[in-house]
Amino acid sequence: MPRFDLAYGRTTIPVDVPDRNLIGVLEPRSVPKVDLRDAFDAAWRSPRGLSDPLDRLVSGRSLALVVTDHTRSTPTKEILPLLWDRIRARVSASDVTIVVATGTHRAPTDAELERMFGEWRRTFRVLVHDCDADLVEVGCSSRGTPILINRAVAEAGAVITIGHVGMHYCAGYTGGRKNILPGVAGRATIEANHAQLLDPRSAACVYDGNPISEEMVEAARRVNVAFIVDVVMDADRDVAKVVVGEPEAAHAEARSFWDRYFKVRVEQPADLVIASAGGHPKDIDLYQAYKAQYTAARALHDGGILLLLAACPDGVGHRVFEDWIKQSERPADVFGILRREGFKLGGHKAVYFAADLARIDVFLKSELDDDETRRFFLRPVRGPDEVFAEARQRFGGDFRVLVLPHAADTFPVIAP
To answer: I need a labelling partner for 353 at 20 to 30 A (CA). Which of 34, 39, 58, 388 fits?
Structure first.
């Protein structure tokens, strides 16, 4: 009987799947291991879409380093010295501000900031973005959205973004332009942008023609982004690829790499999918862990069962997401709230959440209170045996199981 030790918070949970039921394990393809320093050096020497030496692009200017927040696994602390070694001759440390791109997330704690930056907190000024304060309008998008941006970023002489590229369920992909919008944008701008999520082109792994992504690109062009530094990480959170360069050219290279390794073909949908969100910080709360639910659900037929392993030590994670669900007597009621109240950030994820629950059942192993879990129309479980019993009852003894050890980094594509 195969055993899987699946990531859960900062630990693992063992799951034994009967041989007769296991039809496959969906994981990203094996990614070549790279040394971060060597990969960064190679990317720096061959920047995508730029011909001028990169250090000259920031020479003598005030510099904003826009970095991902505590909900992301970007190795910012390891990238900063590699970047600083290459630009320090042209930029004074007193002219550098690290801006934490929280979007609408909560601010990181002091301990989280220490883990993210270490000594660099004492080298540079660190500013945590607040989507409701100290914003500058830098113009409007072609769709008429006023683009409100953090003042420190909008007024910087040059901007460098540091992030990572992966799948995003409505923006197509993370990374690149996303550090600006939603990362350091105002709440009204983020809400207007995300309101386009019901457009069928606003979908995972769709970049060209995706209205949410296209508006993000426009917003990024409104600030002085000199270049981006993005990484692609493997399922073990090791860096697999580094790209440096002009925002669109470098991001395109990272997207292509991600597609090659992380899109996985599924020959037949399963009756039961067992999925780990990937452990901390990917399962820091239900709002973040939803990404794993979204991808894992793609591998199930209608009426199937998902067992999601997500610790959620921070609880639900978003007030509007929580409010829309708790206003609802059943998942379908979320769509009525959307029609009545219009788009609200956080509510968008409630809409996706409800759409999943319209066709599958989700069992959740987490640290959430059982009543709280049920209030989100999920079934709390202590372990996989409860779910196996349910699958056996619904589908018979030969129920088909797929395991996704790294669901947030695996994109199932059903075979035609």
So the answer is: 388
pLDDT of amino acid 1? 76
Taking alpha carbons only, the member of 363, 379, 377 closest to residue 305 is 363
pLDDT in tens, 343-395: 787 888 899 999 999 999 999 999 999 999 999 999 999 999 999 999 999 99
Structure tokens, 314 = 């921070």
Do 298 and 410 lie in one domain? The reply is yes
- Dist. CA 306–CA 364, nearest whole Å: 8
**Entry pTM:** 0.84
Burial class, 396, CB count within 10 angstroms (exposed 0-12 / middle 13-18 / buried 19+): exposed
- Pair of tokens at residue 92: 């004074």
**pLDDT tens-place string over residues 70-112:** 988 899 999 999 999 999 999 999 999 999 999 988 899 999 9
Cα distances (Å, whole numbers) of residue 140 to 102, 147, 221, 344, 402 = 22, 5, 11, 20, 46
**Is the domain of 17 the same as that of 113?**
no
Asked if residue 315 and residue 197 are part of one domain, the reply reads no
* Among 271, 284, 281, 272, CA closest to 366: 284
Let me know if residue 251 belongs to a domain.
no
In degrees, rounded to 5, the angle at the alpha carbon of residue 237 between the alpha carbons of residues 410 and 102 is: 90
Q: What is the DSSP string of 9-36?
A: TTEEEEEE--TTTEEEE--PPPPPP--H
Distance CA 3, CA 6 (A): 9
